[in-house]
Amino acid sequence: MTTEGPAAEPRTLAEDLRARGDGALSALLRARPDLLSPVPNDLSQLATRAGTRASVVRALERLDRFTLQVAEALALAPDGAPLGTLTALMGPEAAEALPGALETLRTQALLWGGDDRLRLVRTARDILAPAAGSVSPTGLGPSVAEATSGMSPGRLQQILETAGLPPTHDPVSAVDALTALFADRPRMTALLEAAPAEATAVLGRLTWGPPYGEVADVGAPPAPVRWLLERGLLLPAGARNVVLPREVALHLRDGRAHRTPEPVPPAVEPRAHDPQAVDATAAGQAFTAIRTVEELVKQWETGGPQILRAGGLSVRDLKRVATALDVAEPVAAFWLELAYAAGLVAPDGEVDEAYAPTPEYDEWLLLPAELRWAALVTAWLTATRTSGVVGTRDAKGRALAALGPDLDRSLAPEIRRQVLDFLAALPAGASATPDALLARLRWERPLRGGVSMDALRADLVRWTASEAELLGVTGRGALATHGRALLSAAGDRAAKAAALLRPLLPEPLDHVLLQADLTAVAPGPLQPHLAETLHVLADIESKGGATVYRFTPESVRRALDAGRTAAELHAFLAAHSRTPVPQPLSYLVDDVARRHGRLRVGAASAYLRCDDDALLSEVLADRRSAGLGLRRLAPTVLAAQADPGTLLERLRAMGLAPAAESAEGDVLITRADARRTPPRSAPVPVTDGPPVPDDTLLGAAVKAIRAGDRASTAVRRESVPRPAAGGDRGLPRTAAAETLATMQAAVLTGESVWIGYVNADGAASQRVIGPLRVEGGFVTAYDHTADEVRTFALHRITGVSELADDLA
User: What is the pTM (predicted TM-score) of this model?
Assistant: First the structure.
């Protein structure tokens, strides 16, 4: 049942919600998704939940500064005050924006009632206008009634007499008389005109808050303060404190609740750039981001750093990553956290747990460059893990490590989105300073996180600006065209952004330029298979617009260890070089291949065998083999006390090219991509509250709430006997025969009925159902409360009643 407008003035928030349409209820649940956990049974329960302190605080934190100022003014006004009173509190400059703010408060069920009786939810009033001893966010103190609570009747009468008011018979009427004086502008003006200049100065210091002042002794105050205390313009608030009553402060403020209402957000001043230059800069940085993450994860393919006992990466390992990527440590921490958030690296789950690439990394490598970028940016937008706090200390003084625990900051995704939205509102190619973005954010969410979190909020704005630049979402501080697509309202935003980025990325190359100094120059990005093979065959010497690879005996041996033959390496170089293969490079490949595998290392502890006994004699005589525990077992076999891995490493350091072999004598092939974690899912963001529900969930929730409300407020026909026990609010009571007859009649007529039902657990409930079929001791009916077809056992139905004609 949907009602478009109230027939009379609502008496409660529940009645106000009951009079709203389905669209208004959907808007409320969308703005305050915590009200849906779980779905309320009816509108009364929804109203109760909307008035709880935790939910109201969450709603207030999401108001902009002006709407919050309006709510603060309403908290000061009498309950049920008309719109004119609120307009006077806010000032004429806020009149134009006032209807929008009131509509926002009504939408979020923080305010109800018409413009002639504005009622702020009581919990919000208690939060925004605290009692005596506290200060309102407006800087106003307690009212006269609150400040004089506990004051002796004789003292109140003295104040009335000094202020020129007639005596009264009781404290209540005395407080009312004093309040009326302070609210009467002509009389109040005349009273203040007689005040000494020093007393006026004291009032001026307290007018806009804080309203509390300190004196040496309230019983013997300075003359200006005594003059004010004698007339109630200041009131005692302890042995050494005085307070300015709210009514006096409002008079001194000309009736305004705030010194400066802010109906308009601060402007974000744009700094113009060429949009094409912005897109080109952002695209170049996006490509760099893809290559950086790929290079980072490749470093861990054959074994990543071990995980600290407390979790995360050690400072030494973070420095190694920073050195390898040639970036600062905070930037290295960002790339690490991004790869982790995208599910590309994870703990391997072994006994000595270490980090390694995940199977998702292999799938990511196969994607086109623009889709790889989209995957990274999508993970960044929603991640709550914040790399900027790496290196700082937690509340217990422990340093926070990259990839470690306690890096989640629930504010991060919201602030990232808001900063990008602010940039999207600027003209194409325009940037803004982080300070301007922070000022706008503070207007949008003035209470968000409180004072203790304001520093974090400022850091998050600054980190968002730098991270968006690193990822290529922005260029020169301005939002790129493909960055704007990430903020679109409908469709696959990541796919749209990737499609816009694709024409701006360089095309992958299928060739390199081989040079006589044993280097290869890649003049641009390489195709994945070419880059993968070249990464094994050569070492990266320098990066930039072009990448320089250097061939060394160690790198060629690495390719041979991976299972390549010399013939395959020659063919690969000839096929992918735009220049002839230099002779020194061919000689290098042949020389390493000729020596590769002459020595064979296997597991005894370890053994070393070679068909050339002279070579084994040379190894035994070499001083660098000391410590390996080598001894000759046969002319072609040496035994070692070191493990095979150590033996391989030491022999290679001696300039030899040994190969590992299996127990059967076969050469073991070492693949760079052999190490992967088991399937891992990306870390789940630690969100701040439930997510915003989609339209499908909202529609279903509103239907369920309406149905439950209909069941709880259904009116029964007077012709049916009233329940004998429990009054009108109890379950209906009818005989079994009458229940069966009423159900059968409802099936024939298609009408809905009101029943009492006790389930298998003994829980009693009231429901409105539309019976569809009665057979075998069960009733199949459409349950309006649950908004679905259910089956009810006849023997569990305590009674049945027909609905009134207007509700059936």
Answer: 0.75
